[in-house]
Each structure stands twice: as C-alpha cells, then as structure tokens.
Amino acid sequence: MTPAAHRGTALVVVDVQNDFCTGPLAASRYPGDPAALRSVVAHTVRAVAAARDHGTEVVFVRFTGDPDHQGAAWRRRDERRGRPPKCLEGSWGAEFAAPLEPAPGERVFTKRACFDAFLCAGFEEHLAGRGTGHLAFAGLFTDVCVDSTARTAFQKGFHITVLGDCTTALHTPDEQILGFMRRLYGARITPYEHTAVWTRHPEEEEACPQPSTNPTALSKASA
Questions:
Q1: DSSP secondary structure of 176-192
Q2: CA 126 to chain centre
Q3: What percentage of the chain has pLDDT greater than the value 90?
Q4: pLDDT per residue over 154-200, tens digit each?
Q5: What is the pLDDT of residues 86-111, one digit of tens each?
Q6: Residues in a beta bridge with 137
Q7: At residue 36, does pLDDT exceed 90?
Q8: Which secondary structure element, helix H or strand E, spans residue 148, and what is its range?
Q9: Assigned CATH topology for domain 4-217
Q10: Rounded to 5 degrees, what angle do the CA atoms 200, 212, 220 make?
C-alpha cells in the first residue's frame, strides 16, 4: 500500500505545442487525420479545466529541439532524414497550442531534445515534494514522449493513468500502444470525461465501480 504521503495525483500535460499539433509542420508529420490532433488539444483543454475544478495539480511539460540541445545521435538522425528541428526556443512552434495555457503558479518543465520528462531538471523532485504517487497523462505523442515518461514513472513506483482521448500516437496504432501501456505498466486507460476515475489514486479505485477502460472504446472523434 502506498503511504498516505504519496497518494497525490498530478495531471501531466506533455508537449501540446504548435509544432506537434497545429499548422503545416504538424500535419506533414502526423500520418493520420489532422482532426485527431485538434481533438487531442480540445480534450486536453477540458481535462485541464476538470483537474483544476477538482483540485488536482496540473504539470506542464514542453519540448525544445534546438540543435544546441541535441546529442550527436539526435543530430545525425535528423541530418540523415533531412528533418528540421522542431519547437525552437522562443518560436511560435514551441508555444502551447491555444487555448491551452498554464495558469499562474502551475509548473512548466522543459525537455531539451529528449523524450522523457524525468530528464527535466526538477521534475521528479517536484513530484516527490508534492507527495505525488499517481500520474495521469495527456498530450503528445502516446508512443514517444508520453510512453517514455510513463515508462520511467512506472519504474520509479508511480501509478499510471492515460487519458486515451487526450493523446494520439505518431508511429504506432493508438490501440496497440495504449494496450501495451496497460499490460506493461498496469496503466489505467480512461476518457477525460471520467474525472472521478483519473483524479483518484488507483489504490482507492476498489471503493468505486470502474467504467470501461477498453482502448478501442475511446472516442478519437474531432471535437
């Protein structure tokens, strides 16, 4: 049983930035219908509002891909593929997609050319200081930065929930990566509307009936 001091929940919003979900660069990289990206933004905005209303902490994570931040392997990969850097510091592409915006006092952590938010200075320490033991994830992309952060979180002892309609995958079918996370990390997969589920620590879930968490049942329709 998780100690009472580590029973808190945080909604972690990952990389909902213009270069990933808005405009021609995002559309050129995403293999599916761009409407799915718009849906992720709209649903994430609603999830953030629900978290705030419920008193659940919201933590924002952003990515910057400036060449100065890239390691040698990252630069070589992009050069070989002819890929320009994304989310350059200070650019429109690095900004959070409107109308998503951190509220005063909400923490924002920056990943500099890396996938995993636990590589951000202060991220893990902040969660520990807040007594957080459960992370609910929204944002982009399920199979890249969301999965990378969730994998580390699981190995460090955090319980994982993924808001299945607040994310989408870049390289892997959505159902496949969500099912993988459910099996490997014991992640709960739930729509953002089920606020009473994802704002509650999983060890408390036995007290309340659970709605369906089948990833194939989660709506990806455009908002």
A1: HHHHHHHHHH--EEE-T
A2: 17
A3: 82
A4: 999 999 999 999 999 999 999 999 999 999 999 999 999 999 999 99
A5: 999 999 999 999 999 999 999 999 99
A6: 12, 162
A7: yes
A8: helix 147-155
A9: Rossmann fold (3.40.50)
A10: 100
Identity of the residue numbered 112:
R
Report residue 207 as tokens: 């007290």
Considering the entire predicted model, what is its pTM? 0.90
Q: Which residue type sits at 77?
A: R
More confidently predicted of 68 and 218: 68
Residues 6+ apart with CB under 8 A from 84: 78
Question: How buried is residue 129: exposed, middle or buried, by Cβ count under 10 Å (0-12/13-18/19+)?
Answer: exposed
* 8-state DSSP, 7: -
Contact (CB, 8 A) for 55 and 195: no
- Nearest Cα to Cα of residue 116 among 151, 140, 81: 151
Cα–Cα distance measured from residue 174 to residue 221, given in angstroms and rounded to the nearest whole number: 13
- Angstrom CA distances, 52 to 27, 43, 45, 158, 177, stand at 30, 14, 11, 21, 28
Single-letter amino acid code for the residue at 16 = V
Measured in Å, how far apart are the chain's first and last C-alpha atoms? 39
Q: Which two tokens stand for residue 151?
A: 């994998």
